[in-house]
Task: structure prediction
Amino acid sequence: MTITTRFAPSPTGYLHVGGARTALFSWLYARKHGGKFILRIEDTDLERSTQESVNAILEGMTWLGLDYDSGPFYQTHHFDRYKEIIQQLLAQGDAYYCYCSKDELEQLRTEQMANKEKPRYNGKCRDSAEPQQEREPVIRFKNPDIGVVTIPDLVKGDIVVANKELDDLIIARADGTPTYNLTVVVDDMDMKVTHVIRGDDHINNTPRQMNILKALGAELPKYAHLPMILGPDGARLSKRHGAVSVMQFRDEGYLPEALLNYLVRLGWSHGDQEIFTIDEMVEYFELYDVNVSASTFNMEKLLWLNHQYIMNSDPAHVARHLSWHIGQLGIDPAEGPELIDVVKAQRERSKTLVEMAAASVYFYKEFDTYDEKAVKKNFTPGSDHVLARLHDELVTVTDWNGEIVHQIVVNLAETMGLNLGKVAQPLRVAVCGSGVSPAIDVTLSLLGQEKTLARIEKAINYIRTLN
Ligand code: GLU
Result:
């Protein structure tokens, strides 16, 4: 038996953190067992499903690197199959037409509520529905009315639900379209899904789905219901807690591996290990290690992880992601140093790629203004003279590299009887526009001789207008 899992999002919004975590756990389980991971787009709600949302889901999956072995399948392409199964259930007596009107059902509901009963369909049409010409019927599943359903939940343990708690759910609407519980069941059966891994908001659907599967004589999958993700205030994670769309994390400068690493720890742990390579996640992941209780999303921890990944990943890999951010700033990376060298120079000080890109603009583009505070502190009277002396030295260099530049700065400070900062800081502000940059030798070697000299000249002129 091939272990088969699926991620089955409804395309009614972006791929959010909760969905991505479900996708990741399903993906990990399949990968760990050499199984199959399916992507299924549950787009039968024609009013709420959009192509944009499908695109956002696909884009999110690609960015995260959660590759699927089959799909994306679209449920809207399976309508004939759903109809066939509905007919089969009718023919074998496991489904029936229901002619109850909306008003009737509403009245039933009101009465039940008044009697403090759980609102549920009373089974009026179950055994003897008289066809009514004036009304198109819905089709209901004939749920067994005795016995129990035991969900073999791999996270929460067995969950037992009495059949009398479950009413006869609608599997086809009056217009003939199938409902969620029916379509999921048919696809899970046809796709031979062995493990249904999904959020625990679906737990109420599971016994109903299991009953339909049983009626169809299908083998039952195992289930794993994942605990909810909460925001720091204890409410279910939502937009108001900040970024929750996967692509927004890309936009805010996160590496996909950092987000994956963060997501895997949302409700799952392996000892006290915090950082996992993808291979380690695959190796260690077990559904029985998933927590039963909800987990809380912690932005600071994600930021910390991102920094770890920026510092410790292969710089070429980080550079590929940085390149997108540099592009977002309208900068052509060909106008300056290799991005991989920028990554090496900036990774200690950048928690996100947005920060790294913003702090690297001066390598590629001229700036028009200097940071005011840095000017006050470093472009003091006489600093123009220091810069002029530096220019004289730097212009003579034939083999531009960090070591030579460093030596020139150190020697000049010594010759002029100044401490190193008095030389290096005005130089830094001259070439970067602010007092913050990697070490001055690294900064200048990345910037190159031509830009360095031009910026020193510009700074000298600027200082002379000040003093
Ligand atoms: N389409 C459902 C959703 O997006 C998931 C269905 C399932 O996993 O069974 O919530």
Q: What stands out?
A: The domain at 4-68+182-229 is CATH 3.40.50.620 (Rossmann fold).
